[in-house]
């Protein structure tokens, strides 16, 4: 009898272990981890909005097939899919992009605004109210700034003539595109998240700067910088020299003290040693030379120029722009801010 009792207890324990394994032993390769947003909150990305078993999935079916049996999944990617975002939820938009505005589907109102869409989400038209007069009667809050894409009237001309500052204190390009500081910060965070590199936190916090350049000296490891540069130079091959080779050589030239750490000051000194400030990238940046070199450095804090990071990619060759659009959002002067230049599925 005692033997039978022990056998029953053992069977029950085995069952508990089996159930626990079914709940926790899911296929992690099928899921993605949460991401940290600009406020420091962890949430699922729009590509994998279903949260279950502490990970992010495309939907409940993928979670189930991956071995996750948690039925308490949150479909909507954190706060992005809730009913309080002001959007029209009675639409044909997918759960990953439930906010309908300007004839497109967005994660939420903030993403729509960052993309240049000022519709209220219910088909009510432009709610920006901006008329270019700079009276603060339009636009949306963005940190310390008010972002109004219609406020293109110049107040202060930028010294190098590349644009001007409007009454909201935001940079306006020579083609009339207003810089969006919130989108700028997201562009930097895109690089960090999508490429898995570490960008200086102090630079990220101030990356939406306008006008005056912050007096900081951001740093980045050469190994992380190489990941970024190689991603920019994919499919480049000039006389048998690959993009990877150009990237490696460029990183070595910037690392003047060979300590494996790049800084803004160090990069400026290295570029300054070349009259054109192009170093080894002349075959790639044949048109805008040193300006283009500054542009690629600006996105990771190794170059700080006049405000408005979102204008910098305009000096890059098309192939580099296309590569950049695969892992970070950006638009160039003369290109409408609503134009999609970022693949959120990547």
Automatic annotation (TrEMBL):
Keywords: Signal. Residues 1-22 form the signal peptide. The keyword Signal applies. This is EF-hand domain-containing protein. It comes from Aquimarina mytili. The lineage of its organism: Bacteria, Pseudomonadati, Bacteroidota, Flavobacteriia, Flavobacteriales.
